[in-house]
């Protein structure tokens, strides 16, 4: 399957609370998936953990799984439990390093989006605007931060 998109997620966990790919794997199995739905998890210290094998379709973004690679950074909620870009500096660096590496490995990748950017275009104007976001994941403007030029 041709993967043309990278979709960024957050784990929707509170700032400072670290979870591993193994923990997310257990959550997803509890929800009835056969394994973790993401291909990669980025922990608070910037370490990149493997999730589902990248050669297999993920289970992270309805309608996009067959064409995308799913990356989840740990965090996404502030201390009050509100959506927030909680990425640590090591997480930001690891995310950019991983996206760059995936773009080289998968020349078919044309865009990097946030989960919320995959919301339906309710008014049909071709742009997914914040009022149309069904969820806030991953709590930052992915399209503005990751611009692929090739
Ligand atoms: Zn998500």
Summarize the helix and strand pattern as letters: EEHEEEEHEH
- Could you say how many structural domains there are in total? 1
* Known CATH architecture: 3-Layer(aba) Sandwich
Count of helix runs: 3
Helix content: 10-25%
CATH class: Alpha Beta
**Ligands present:** zinc ion
Spatial separation of the terminal alpha carbons? 21 Å
* Radius of gyration of CA atoms, rounded to a whole number: 15 Å
Outline the low-pLDDT stretches.
Answer: none
Estimated structural class: alpha/beta
Q: What strand order characterises the main sheet?
A: 4-3-5-1-7
Let me know the average pLDDT. Answer: 93
Largest sheet: 5 strands, mixed
GO biological process, one term: peptidoglycan catabolic process
GO molecular function: N-acetylmuramoyl-L-alanine amidase activity; zinc ion binding
Organism: Bacteroides graminisolvens DSM 19988 = JCM 15093
Pfam family, one: Amidase_2
Architecture overview:
Belongs to the N-acetylmuramoyl-L-alanine amidase 2 family. This is N-acetylmuramoyl-L-alanine amidase. GO terms for molecular function: N-acetylmuramoyl-L-alanine amidase activity; zinc ion binding. Residues 1-119 form the Peptidoglycan recognition protein family domain. There is one protein chain. This protein has three helices and seven strands; from the N terminus they run E-E-H-E-E-E-E-H-E-H. With 150 residues, the protein is of the alpha/beta class. The longest helix is centred in the middle third of the chain and has 17 residues, at 89-105. The chain is globular. It binds zinc ion. Residues 9, 115, 137 line the site of zinc ion.
């Amino acid at each position: 399957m041709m993967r043309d998109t990278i979709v960024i997620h957050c784990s929707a966990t509170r700032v400072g609370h670290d979870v591993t790919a193994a923990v997310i794997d257990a959550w997803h199995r509890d929800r009835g998936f056969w394994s973790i739905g993401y291909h990669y998890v980025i922990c608070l210290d910037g370490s990149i953990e493997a999730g589902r094998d990248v050669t297999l379709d993920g289970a992270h973004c309805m309608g996009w799984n067959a064409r995308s690679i799913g990356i989840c950074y740990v965090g996404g909620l502030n201390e009050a439990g509100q959506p927030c870009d909680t990425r640590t500096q090591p997480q930001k660096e690891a995310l950019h390093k991983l996206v760059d590496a995936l773009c080289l490995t998968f020349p078919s990748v044309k865009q990097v989006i946030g989960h919320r950017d995959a919301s339906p275009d309710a008014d049909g104007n071709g742009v997914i605007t914040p009022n149309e976001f069904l969820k806030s994941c991953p709590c930052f403007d992915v399209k503005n931060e990751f611009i692929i030029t090739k």
